[in-house]
Amino acid sequence: MGNLLISEPPLQVLPSLAVKVGLNEAIILQQFHYWLQRSNNCHDGYRWIYNSFPEWNKQFPFWGLNTLKRAVTSLEKDGYLITANYNKAGFDKTKWYRINYDKLGMGRPSTQNGSTSNPEWVDGMDQNGSTNTNRLPETTTETNKNHSPAEAEQFPWESIIDYLNLKTGKHFRHTPTNKRAIIARHKEGATAEDMRLVIDNQCALWLNDPKMNRYLQPSTLFRASKFEGYLNQVPINGGQGGESYDGIDY
Fold this sequence. Notes:
Layout: H1 15-21, H2 23-36, E1 42-43, E2 46-47, E3 49-50, H3 53-57, H4 65-77, E4 81-84, E5 96-99, H5 149-153, H6 157-168, H7 176-187, H8 192-206, H9 218-221, H10 227-231
Pfam family, one: Phg_2220_C
Organism: Levilactobacillus acidifarinae DSM 19394 = JCM 15949
Protein name: Phage conserved hypothetical protein C-terminal domain-containing protein
């Protein structure tokens, strides 16, 4: 029974925010604010975060997916959340979010890491308070290469396999072997966006090449000795097949 009483880092929310926007909505805004303060995705002068609803739902396991969707939709409708699409792939409809701080009567936070014009909002604590958080990471681009083992294990590696399957038409599974390869690269500092770019680059080179198509697999794409090269690869001939690879021994 004791395990149900503050045995893990709690989500925090200000009562005054809950009165203003609703309890569920306040919890979501606080969590989004937490990640926005740590996001390196800056577009049009603002920080943005993005994730799929199933991935967001992992951060709110006490709600059903429909409850989460209703709360986020309500925040969008009321103007507390602003959405956009900065995805590189045209078919990718994942929403990007930022908080409309002006509507909350707050100044606009700085886009520089570690600073904000409203320190009392960080994690729902005042600027002299302590924080107690252990939230799941969302799939934004991060430049911090010192991921703790716990953070690395929370990386949404399944979505990388799903993206590879989408791009190649193959059916790789969420196996421990595939997970190890992806998590290992993430521990070295690779982001989800880096991994999708590797998939895009090598698909452009190999997808229509009968000789190289078989190398479009996790064990090749996320191999330690090859990943950086693939990440910086410039596709040749638009990926139309033929001699469209760099001669590396795969």
